[in-house]
Amino acid sequence: MSKKRRRKKMIIKPKIQTGFCIISAIFIFSCCIYYGSRLIKYYKIYNPKSESGETLMTLATAISSNSKIVYEKDGLYLENGNYIYKGEDVNNYVLVNNMLFRIIKVNSDKTIDIVLNDFINKMEWDKEYKDYSESSINKYLNDKFLDILDKNILEKTTVCNPKVTKLNEVECGDYTSNDYVRLLGITDILTSKADNKSYLLNESEHLWLYNQTDSKIWHTSGDNLASDDVDSRYGIKPVITLKNNVILIDGEGSKNNPYRISQEGEEISVGTYLDINDDIYIVYEVGKDYYKVQSDKVLNSTRIFDENSNDYSKSGLKYYLEGEYLKNISYSELLKEVDFNGVKSKVGILSNNDFKFNNDLKNYFLSDKLDNNIYLYNGTLTSSKVNIKRNVRPCLGISKDLNIISGNGTSMAPFIVEV
After folding, report:
1. Same domain, yes or no, for 277 and 257?
2. Are strands 290-295 and 279-286 parallel, antiparallel or unpaired?
3. How many Å apart are CA 157 and CA 300, to the nearest integer?
4. Which residues, 6+ apart, have CB-to-CB distance to 38 below 8 Å?
5. Can you give the pTM of this predicted structure?
6. Helix (H, G, I), strand (E, B) or coil at 149
7. pLDDT tops 80 at residue 111
8. CA distance 358 to 68
């Protein structure tokens, strides 16, 4: 009886060992496949090559390897694995969709936070006090502004602890990454300072931040930070996060020679500059068969909106633009009738909701009413009586059937359109 038992044990033992070896081999093989594929994936991300086999460089790698790290004054700092630009005079410019952005930082995962160099509008936070995630501004950014971007190059961007009651008690204990576009935050401002100066602060700018108190919203006020009510109107500078594999084409990061990245999309997009017969325009809306463009300057002489009416569709300004102004345009064959805030025409003016580029232009009429007055786009969004002379910034509807002769669509080298 005992001999049979011993033989039985000797038969079972090899089977257990064989099974264990097979399972171990499968596990090791699976690990090799999983981690090997991840190694290949990240090798391709950080060591990209062109179709011809030429080695390419990501923007994150170019910044981290080619830039000098500093420990004081203006420049690029290395802190906790993040490369952060600090100070007033830093070469951190990058072109995305022909729009000029500033690089805030290269994160430890090689994604890159960037902010538009110029604000695109001035708006209320909302009609009533709301969390940033539910505010009108957040919807404006993640609907209207996101719609003009190439999402293939974007990661969801991070918002850090939106509630701040005291500036000396700013802590990032709560992170959310629900949206592709956000506003600047207090932490962006504080970490960008060197000698109490920052490229994110400007004496003439008042910008909304995404941080809130228990009843008000934080904003920049020149070189300082302050809070105000939700019905105030401040500038909006979108912040987006680029993926860690965006490829650098050329550039050195200066304003005159910004970094340029590889991306797909229409050659002419929102933010593109066009030179039509020596008149410079900026595209602010792209339709199915048209571009809406805003002049890069105001008219040489100021005009009234109307003697009495604040309705643009019945105004003397509309009558002038569609009459005398259009007659003097030599490239009328390029013009196309489009919708200007409810008015169908080849020429019009901007509305509150439209993107506005080149904020050196001030004191010009918008087409929206405010009580008995008309909105005025100025250092702040304000209003004006209709019979007081103000600047006029014309906008045109342009056919998409354009022949581009030269240029790259930037403010430094606008696309030259053949007339």
Report:
1. no
2. antiparallel
3. 42
4. none
5. 0.85
6. coil
7. yes
8. 31
